[in-house]
């Protein structure tokens, strides 16, 4: 045991009336919601990178956090792993997620980096057995090192592509070894700054080839988890190839991977793409590629991905409504891709941030379940589209009527439809009853 969280006890559920800042007021893992335990619905995971690797810097200033594992190479990485599992236990989160660069220092060579990764995986394996904490997903950082400044899979240099492929393989091996339930590909620099030096067709084909290699290796190694692709617009590359869920789905269809890969959707990325989070979740569910989520929020006055802990219950509730309607998570879960503000420098602040985020998600889940159980909202939607249940409407939808057939019916029956109210204000009021 380290003394990083010295004097802090395990966080427990105390109910809505509690004023204890180190207690859950709404997250009760054992509470039954729609026939299933709350912790089984939410499947919380803690992000290793923001919680333990981020130094508190911003574009105008450097490190504000002082952590005993910073600048200590492998000894620091081992201490960081010790502290990480202490936090997992204090919060009672069932899962965690990591990039390779979060957990081990960079080596001079690929072989050295991989050796260090496996050494930390040895520690993880032991800690996971001791605590029962599981791995929701692993991934490779293919964006921070300067070798990836022109992309990883989409780099004009085939040696960078090869290095990225080898790095992914190493991380997939560790993810499977640790019984991870998913593997994520996060294309931080898979895009372009300017078309002046870019061949779009080549880069897209390279990205498609890399993803196909990953899928092939998944089946070869016998990995039973899900391959997830994370949509991300604009930053740091101005034109990202994985801009949003619909863009990713089109990409998957083009390369015949729509039945092999799902998406990991982040709130902050959805906002940067000009969408709401529930839009992206609903779109993924519609396309059949909903996999997992990264739960955070952006500062709406900033054009950057600020990765703050969630605190907006109505937004979260609408997202979980669509997740529940889609059948809930399978291998995915709720990962807190969220970080402290750079002035929140104390260890206890890590607990405050996660407690608030977990309570917000719990309230959102319960509100979403209440909306479904009440049935008024679903009944309205069914009624609004009820006309499509008509035999003639179904014939149009199934391709049993030509344009000429449809036109003839409009003329014969003198069809002259009148607009009907969409009742948006009524629906907003209805949803607010639950959140």
From TrEMBL:
<feature type="binding site">
    <location>
        <position position="266"/>
    </location>
    <ligand>
        <name>Mg(2+) 2</name>
    </ligand>
</feature>
<comment type="subunit">
    <text>Homotetramer.</text>
</comment>
<dbReference type="GO" id="GO:0005737">
    <property type="term" value="C:cytoplasm"/>
</dbReference>
<feature type="binding site">
    <location>
        <position position="230"/>
    </location>
    <ligand>
        <name>Mg(2+) 1</name>
    </ligand>
</feature>
<keyword id="KW-0413">Isomerase</keyword>
<dbReference type="GO" id="GO:0000287">
    <property type="term" value="F:magnesium ion binding"/>
</dbReference>
<feature type="binding site">
    <location>
        <position position="266"/>
    </location>
    <ligand>
        <name>Mg(2+) 1</name>
    </ligand>
</feature>
<dbReference type="InterPro" id="IPR001998">
    <property type="entry name" value="Xylose_isomerase"/>
</dbReference>
<feature type="binding site">
    <location>
        <position position="294"/>
    </location>
    <ligand>
        <name>Mg(2+) 1</name>
    </ligand>
</feature>
<keyword id="KW-0859">Xylose metabolism</keyword>
<feature type="active site">
    <location>
        <position position="99"/>
    </location>
</feature>
<keyword id="KW-0460">Magnesium</keyword>
<feature type="binding site">
    <location>
        <position position="269"/>
    </location>
    <ligand>
        <name>Mg(2+) 2</name>
    </ligand>
</feature>
<feature type="binding site">
    <location>
        <position position="337"/>
    </location>
    <ligand>
        <name>Mg(2+) 1</name>
    </ligand>
</feature>
<protein>
    <recommendedName>
        <fullName>Xylose isomerase</fullName>
        <ecNumber>5.3.1.5</ecNumber>
    </recommendedName>
</protein>
<keyword id="KW-0479">Metal-binding</keyword>
<keyword id="KW-0963">Cytoplasm</keyword>
<feature type="binding site">
    <location>
        <position position="307"/>
    </location>
    <ligand>
        <name>Mg(2+) 2</name>
    </ligand>
</feature>
<dbReference type="GO" id="GO:0009045">
    <property type="term" value="F:xylose isomerase activity"/>
</dbReference>
<dbReference type="InterPro" id="IPR013452">
    <property type="entry name" value="Xylose_isom_bac"/>
</dbReference>
<feature type="binding site">
    <location>
        <position position="305"/>
    </location>
    <ligand>
        <name>Mg(2+) 2</name>
    </ligand>
</feature>
<keyword id="KW-0119">Carbohydrate metabolism</keyword>
<feature type="active site">
    <location>
        <position position="102"/>
    </location>
</feature>
<comment type="similarity">
    <text>Belongs to the xylose isomerase family.</text>
</comment>
<dbReference type="InterPro" id="IPR036237">
    <property type="entry name" value="Xyl_isomerase-like_sf"/>
</dbReference>
<dbReference type="GO" id="GO:0042732">
    <property type="term" value="P:D-xylose metabolic process"/>
</dbReference>
């Amino acid at each position: 045991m380290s003394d990083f969280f010295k004097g802090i006890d395990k966080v427990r559920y105390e109910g809505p009336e509690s004023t204890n800042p180190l207690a859950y007021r709404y997250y009760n893992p054992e509470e039954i919601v729609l026939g299933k335990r709350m912790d089984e619905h939410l499947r919380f995971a803690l992000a290793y990178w923001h919680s333990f690797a981020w130094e508190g810097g911003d574009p105008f200033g450097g490190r504000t956090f002082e952590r005993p594992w910073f600048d200590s190479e492998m000894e620091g990485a081992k201490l960081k792993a010790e502290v990480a599992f202490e936090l997992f236990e204090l919060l009672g989160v069932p899962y965690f997620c990591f990039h390779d660069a979060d957990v081990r220092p960079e080596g001079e060579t690929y072989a050295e980096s991989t050796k260090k990764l496996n050494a930390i995986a040895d520690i993880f394996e032991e800690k996971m057995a001791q605590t029962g904490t599981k791995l929701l997903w692993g991934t490779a950082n293919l964006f921070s090192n300067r070798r990836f400044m022109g992309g990883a899979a989409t780099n004009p240099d085939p040696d960078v592509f090869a290095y990225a492929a080898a790095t992914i393989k190493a991380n997939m091996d560790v993810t499977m070894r640790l019984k991870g339930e998913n593997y994520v590909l996060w294309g931080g620099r898979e895009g372009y700054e300017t078309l002046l030096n870019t061949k779009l067709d080549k880069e897209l084909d390279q990205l498609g080839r890399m993803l196909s290699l990953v899928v092939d290796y998944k089946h070869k190694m016998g990995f039973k988890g899900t391959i997830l692709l994370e949509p991300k617009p604009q930053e740091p590359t101005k034109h990202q190839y994985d801009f949003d869920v619909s863009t990713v789905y089109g990409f998957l269809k083009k390369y015949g991977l729509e039945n092999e890969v799902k998406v990991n959707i982040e709130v902050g990325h959805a906002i940067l793409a000009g969408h709401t989070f529930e839009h992206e979740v609903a779109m993924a569910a519609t396309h059949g590629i909903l996999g997992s989520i990264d739960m955070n929020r952006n500062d709406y006055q900033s054009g950057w991905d600020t990765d703050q802990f969630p605190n907006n219950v109505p937004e979260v509730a609408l997202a979980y409504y669509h997740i529940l309607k889609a059948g809930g998570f399978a291998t995915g879960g709720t990962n807190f891709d969220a970080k402290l503000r750079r002035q929140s420098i104390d260890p206890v602040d890590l607990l405050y941030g996660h407690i608030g985020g977990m309570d917000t998600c719990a309230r959102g889940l319960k509100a979403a379940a209440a909306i479904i159980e009440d049935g008024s909202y679903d009944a309205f939607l069914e009624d609004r589209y009820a006309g499509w249940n008509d035999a003639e409407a179904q014939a149009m939808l199934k391709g049993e009527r030509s344009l000429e057939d449809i036109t003839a019916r409009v003329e014969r029956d003198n069809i002259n439809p009148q607009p009907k109210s969409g009742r948006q204000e009524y629906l907003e009021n209805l949803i607010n009853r639950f959140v």
